Structures are given as C-alpha cells and as structure tokens.
C-alpha cells in the first residue's frame, strides 16, 4: 500500500530530523551533552507533565486539557497507524478505542484553540514554526474529524465513502507529523524559558 510506505517514510524522516536537530542544537543547561546532562534533561522533560504550583486556576485547567489531548493523540496514533505499519486493518476493539478517543481530542483542541490563540499570534520570526504547527493542527482537525463524521451517513455512496477514508488518512498523516513537530518545539521552548529564568551560576 502506497500510503503505508509514505507514512513510514514521513515519520522516519521527521523523527530522524528531530534527532539530528537535537544533536546540532543542544538545549541542555550547560550546552554540552554529558551523561549527567542527558539524565537531567530527561527528568526535566518528564517534569513538564506535572502541574506547577505557580500556575493559576486557568493555567492548571489548560495544562490538564493539554495532557488529556496528549493522551488522546497517543491512543489515536497507536490505534490508527499501528495496524497500518504492521500491514493490518483498523477493526474490532482497536476501532472502538480509536472512535472513543477521537471526540475527546476534538474537544481538547477546541479548548486549547481558545486558550492559546492569543499566545500563538505571529509577531515576528521567533517561534514561527511552532505557531505554524499550532494553526496547522487546528486547520487539519476539521477535515480530519468531518471526514469520519460524514462517512457515518449514507449520503455519498460507496465511492464517496472511499474518498472520505482517503481524506481522513492523509489528514491524519499531516496532523500527526505536525503534532510531533509541535510537541518537540514546545518542549524546547519551555526548557529554554526555564533556563533563562534560572541561568547557570
């Protein structure tokens, strides 16, 4: 299947590019990759999942919504692309799980769009790629969701159902790629901001 191999290639290139970018542009506190810094950075990334005490109630709510969105995306990615990568079809329990988490992610994206829109306004080149990914996720979420919603109704016939499935697949590939890049850049920005606030003495 062409879509399967294209998906494998896209994610391989994307993850490989992220790995290369990490090697070329270090974001450890000392600016060097030592074993100690590697462990410290991994722990730092994990702590980003926690709710900081300094957050306001609205900030805590946004963080919880983001975490729920991450969980939903992980489940949807594994259930959607997992069978594809192994040459299987999405069916049975996996399909039910996939369909259950899809509306959860849609609601989370709607809330995040409302809460983050002001922070993602283009005001220069700084974080431009991050903001492009954010808006791309919101735009792609519409055909991604609507293609499956419309496929539940017998309005478009057999050919229309096939077309909607193809739209859903390609939008899912673009959405997943944008999501991985967005998460990577968001982590880098968050760690960079904390390094600026707490520089090495």
Give the key terms.
201 residues; mainly alpha; 77% helix; globular
CA(first)-CA(last) distance: 55 Å
The overall pLDDT average reads 83
Q: What does the overall shape look like?
A: globular
Q: Indicate the radius of gyration in whole angstroms.
A: 19 Å
Strand portion: under 5%
Low-confidence stretches: none
What's the number of extended β-strand segments? Answer: 0
Q: What kind of sheet is the major sheet?
A: none
Number of helices: 6
Protein structure class:
mainly alpha
**SSE order:** HHHHHH
Helix content: over 70%
Describe this structure in words.
This protein has helices at about 1-25, 35-45, 55-85, 90-115, 130-150, 155-195. It is mostly helical and about 200 residues long. Helix 1 packs parallel to helix 6 (about 155-195). It is globular and about 55 Å long. The chain starts with a helix and ends with a helix.
């Amino acid at each position: 299947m062409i879509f399967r191999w294209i998906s494998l290639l896209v994610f391989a290139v994307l993850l490989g590019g992220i790995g290369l970018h990490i090697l070329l542009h270090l974001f450890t506190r000392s600016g060097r990759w030592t074993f100690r810094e590697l462990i410290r950075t991994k722990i730092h990334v994990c702590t980003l999942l926690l709710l900081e005490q300094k957050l306001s109630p609205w900030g805590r709510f946004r963080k919880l919504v983001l975490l729920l969105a991450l969980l939903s995306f992980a489940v949807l990615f594994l259930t959607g692309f997992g069978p594809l990568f192994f040459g299987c079809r999405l069916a049975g329990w996996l399909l039910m799980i996939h369909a259950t988490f899809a509306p959860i992610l849609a609601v989370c994206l709607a809330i995040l769009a409302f809460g983050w829109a002001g922070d993602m306004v283009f005001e220069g080149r700084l974080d431009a790629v991050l903001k492009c990914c954010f808006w791309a996720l919101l735009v792609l979420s519409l055909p991604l969701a609507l293609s499956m919603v419309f496929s539940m109704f017998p309005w478009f016939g057999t050919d229309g159902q096939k077309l909607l499935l193809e739209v859903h697949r390609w939008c899912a590939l673009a959405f997943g790629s944008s999501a991985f890049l967005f998460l990577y850049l968001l982590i880098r920005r968050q760690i960079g901001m904390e390094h600026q606030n707490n520089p090495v003495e």
